[in-house]
Amino acid sequence: MLLRRLLLTSVFTIATVACSNAEDASTRQMYQRYGNAQGAGAPVTRAAPQISQPVYENTTRTQNDVGGFDHWLHNFRKRAAGQGLQPGFLSSALGGIEYKPRVIELDGKQPENKITFQQYKKNIVSQKRITDGRKYLSQHHALLNRVSKQYGVPPQYIVALWGIETNFGANTGGFDTLSALATLAYEGRRASFFENEFIKALKIMQGGHAGTDRLTGSWAGAMGQCQFMPSSYLRYGADGDGDGNINIWSNLPDVFASTANYLKTEGWNPYLRWGRAVTAPATIADSLYGRETKKPLSYWAAQGVKLPGGKPLPVTRETADLLASLVAPDGPGTETYLVYQNYNVIMHWNRSTYFATSVGLLADAIANGPAR
Asked: For residue range 275-290, what is the model confidence (pLDDT) as tens digits?
């Protein structure tokens, strides 16, 4: 098979967070989650090493691409037959799979600049998103409270994730999930990961419980209003209305229940907040910053960490031993937060301190709206 692409090595960072259409929104989210896993240029606390990514010289569809893809799909059919997928279903499902050059183009995109957390927060925790979040919190009050009671996750976090991931369901991505995943598996940079997700997507379709006959989502295979990869759908997807389906594309009870089930499964503590903004004195060593450094709340108070405005931390007999971490998304000396266990749960959803902090801030802003 002829090589279509010249691979170049580059450090992959993210620049664009403001988006106005479905493809841009899903592209940003997938670069965050499956690119360098750091969000839109966001340094992970105690920065992890960045990953070198290929940039593709040419993404024009050629006959060699199509022929090579068809050959790969033929061989994949043989491998998939040993994964619990029925031959008749495979023949039908794979018959509609197409090579998508646009997916390869997006996978090889290399934004050039980094942004600060202040810039990121301005885009993500915008006044419009806060206003819309409050509106939807009120509009779906009964449903959200039922889901919250069942899973132990406050409604504002469900709404915040919904708002950040897909603009409250408006930008879910318009790519055919099966074709996108097959294209990425064929492309080969992360062949094992995407082939595994492709197989899981096929199992979702074979099971017939998705409530839709066509899976759609981002260019990287994240699906529905909560942007679950197929593996996440199979692990965390929840039937929110008892109809026997888990439809995260158009069924809000399922979207909300699946989001809450994800957080609960990963260890959400219903008695804790995500964290809070604080001020930290310059005397605190840089080595104490980061999620991996967990100290009792009383320790941070003794170190001079305070609430904004200089008020003391709310340390009581009940909270003195509560473990917390000091996180500054742009590094010590910048905007700082004291975060708890639930922050790490949000980080499991998306491994970006920019993302996790913004979810918490947006959730707080939504919850602190006018009384219903």
From this structure: 999 999 999 999 999 9
